[in-house]
Amino acid sequence: MDRPYVITVSSEKGGVGKTTLATNLAIYLKALNEELPVTLFSFDNHFTVDRMFRIGRRRGKGDIGDLFAGQPATDLVEIGEYGVQFIPSSHQLSEIRERLTAVDALARLLAASPLGGVVIIDTRPDLDMFTRNALYAADRVIVPVKDAPSLENCRHLYQFFDQQGLSRRPLRLLPCLIDSRIHYQGPFRDTYQLLKAYAINRGYRCLEGFIAKSPKVESLNTNPEGKIYPVITHGRSTEVHLQFTHLARQVYLGMREERERRLDQVHQEMSRQEQSRDAAFLARRQTLQPDCLLCDRPLASAEAIGPAGYYAETSDGRLAGFLEESCFTETVFRHFYGTRREIGPTDPLRDLFRESAQRSCFVLRRAPHTRNFYQQQLSFYRFDEEGLEVSHKAIDLPREPAGLSQLVTTALGNEEGRLGDQFLLISRVSSDFPEEILYDEQHGRLRQLAGRIAAQLKEN
Ligand SMILES: Nc1ncnc2c1ncn2[C@@H]1O[C@H](COP(=O)(O)OP(=O)(O)OP(=O)(O)O)[C@@H](O)[C@H]1O
Ligand SMILES: [Mg+2]
What's the pLDDT at 184? Predict the structure, then answer.
């Protein structure tokens, strides 16, 4: 699949020319090679991209927020002016930002989409989760700097790359909004020379050249039509036009020279993770007890799992298997709730239990303070979804050979025939798809819950 080359424009400093750079670079790249698909989007809430590129009043099928909700990027792009396609900006970004915890979410979404060409991302003037995502996905990061403070801020971008274990290679500074009228005495004759020297001194790499401050360019987004005009059409007489032409060529050649796309690396990493997830699932699947842990009815064959209502795993991971729904319910009522009568399949108590079990889990273990062989009792706990204890009951060890007694012996018994220190965590599973609990994400959550429960049981 042809994955795009991602260019992220980022700086924590506001008003350094990020959006002007991102939008115009898109147009100049397109002008350089008409065949090259150029896609642009912004995590800013100024809607400059939309105002500059939208043709007429046409509205697309969604916006950049929808990309994070799983809508394919190719469905969201809108064909815009100057041959540049764009994903519309979003009003919902602050809500999405709160939920966005993965730094590689955008990279994964883009790696899975056949956009091709170049993707240019305009970011907000801070290192929020969207900016981090855009940096993580980038083959090239252009950091506009216009003065010493904006140059100092670059430190955080470099730190981000270091923290993520990413190469610093994509990062390039670009002096922007340079006022050519300012001259200094001494070796650094103007702001450009001075910023470049500062950057080199700090080990930051710069793109060649700079973007000058031009009153004409500044005027391009203030006009009676309420439009934003690009430099290529309305600022051709300025030096900025030549500077953008030069910049686009530099970026284009940089892209041509790059052997491997960042998104290809991300894709390979995704495949590796998928393989290891599959392997972990298979390993869990293969070590499952084949029968219901309470009644010996086959539940987990090589082909299928079910019909199971609960999954049980010991805290030391030695034993794992499924339980039939009715088997577990009846055991709990009989041994722990002391119900003498039969709890039939249509009994409302049973429904109630099944229902409440969705939001809790159960634990079996040796009752606290009964380490001594003759004293040993069995404790039955119910915990809520957060892992907080809801109820606890201790009973004498069951005597009959099958059922609960068998489960306790296989799951909790040690070599001396006593109950060990481990516990058995029992959790409700979806009856349609019980093996879901063996997937990394769900199983990881269960292990986390087991960890929280273990911490509490230790205190007992
Ligand atoms: N080369 C230039 N010459 C003159 N003015 C410019 C130039 N580039 C940008 N500007 C002006 O500077 C202001 C800030 O530019 P821009 O919006 O691109 O910065 P930004 O970094 O995206 O800002 P923010 O951090 O708020 O998103 C705008 O008014 C813009 O018109
Ligand atoms: Mg901006």
Answer: 76
Residue 4 CB burial class (10 angstroms; 0-12, 13-18, ≥19): buried
Ordered DSSP codes for 410-423: HHHB-TTSSB-S--
Q: Which residue has the tokens 């896609």?
A: 39
**pLDDT tens-digit map of 40-64:** 999 998 899 999 999 987 777 899 9
Task: Using a CB cutoff of 5 Å, list residues around ligand 2, an ion.
Answer: 18-19, 44
Nearest to 36 by CA among 266, 258, 256: 256
Of the candidates 406, 409, 434, the one whose C-alpha atom is nearest the C-alpha of residue 310 is 434
126 vs 155: CA distance, rounded Å:
13
In three-state secondary structure terms, 311 is strand
Handedness of CA 190, 196, 200, 201 (dihedral sign): positive
Domain at 5-269: CATH code:
3.40.50.300
Indicate which atom in ligand 1 lies nearest the CA of residue 21. Answer: 18
- Residue 234 CA to ligand 1 centre (angstroms): 16
CA of 110 to the centre of ligand 2 (A): 22
The domain limits of the chain are 5-269, 287-459
